Amino acid sequence: MNEHLNKDDQQWAEAAGQALRASERQLDARTLMRLRAIRTQALAETDTPMWHARWAVPAALAAGVLAWVLIPFGSHEPHGIQDLPALVSLDLSEAEALELLMSERGPEFYQNLDFYLWLEENAGGDNT
Amino acid sequence: MNVIAIQTYDSVPGMIETATRMALDAFFARVECRALRMAQIVTRDRDDALDIVQDSMIRLVRRYSGRPEDEWPPLFYRILGNCICDWQRQQVMKNRLFFWNSRTVDGESEDPVTRAPDPGASVEQHLAQREAMGTLEAAVRKLPRRQREAFLLRIWEGLNVEQAARAMGCSGGSVKTHLSRALAVLRAELQEAWP
Fold this sequence. Notes:
The structure holds 2 protein chains of 2 kinds. By secondary structure, chain A is mainly alpha-helical. Helices cover 77% and strands 0% of the residues of chain A. Chain A has 8 helices and no strands. Chain B folds into 2 domains: 10-102, no CATH class; 121-195, Arc Repressor Mutant, subunit A, CATH 1.10.10.10. Chain B starts with 17 loop residues before the first helix and ends in a 6-residue tail after the last helix. Chain B has helices at residues 18-43, 46-64, 72-97, 123-142, 145-156, 161-168, 172-189. The interface between A and B is large, with 39 and 46 residues.
């Protein structure tokens, strides 16, 4: 065993090893029972799949629930596109009112719109 | 004709075969007392030592149960050594954080029942054995980690140089050097108690 040790060291080491091994046999019954319980618990790890396999089912379930919750939201079109048909269905007066509100030109311009149209027609006539 | 595949216990991926489980049980039964005593020498606390042994067993089962049986001893003692080292680090941190609550008295938390003398031995014999073992354990505890591991694995567990080297994660030459130094220190310190 101790091929690199001298004879004295070997004898001393053997005596110490025997004493230490003898101390194992002096464990009390309660400690031995706890050790057996510990061993049983450690071996129970073999009854269940490894941690990655053990977590696979809950992880798959969680992913499924998450997908079930998120996919309906994801399938909706953006609100602007969804509301487009409503804009198209507006009648002209509403469209004109909207254009009036969004325009940089003042309301006075649209109040005199007939005059500006007449002016444009006459100006075009003069050019020809 | 349809063939019905029956998935047996042993064929479930990630689970351990019954034969391996029985071999592990036998291996743990063989080493558990020794592992507990080794941990207890360092921790001086039976409950902490039991926790360390439990962690070591569980780690071996989870990570290395698929390895050949002859590799289990060095792997187990390597895990045990790492668990003991982790425990020591935790104690250092705990003592720094809660220095007023640190335990310094040897065996303070031991159950009195466990300290009762063995009725088979005389009182004098028991006291002499206990004293001698106490001095040896104290001297082993004071050794540097690598020397302590070399001593425990080679002298107590009886691993050969190659197995001890695998357990300690070093070369065989280092194991011999650590053991030689450990014996020199122990013999110098225990001259009277262990002539």
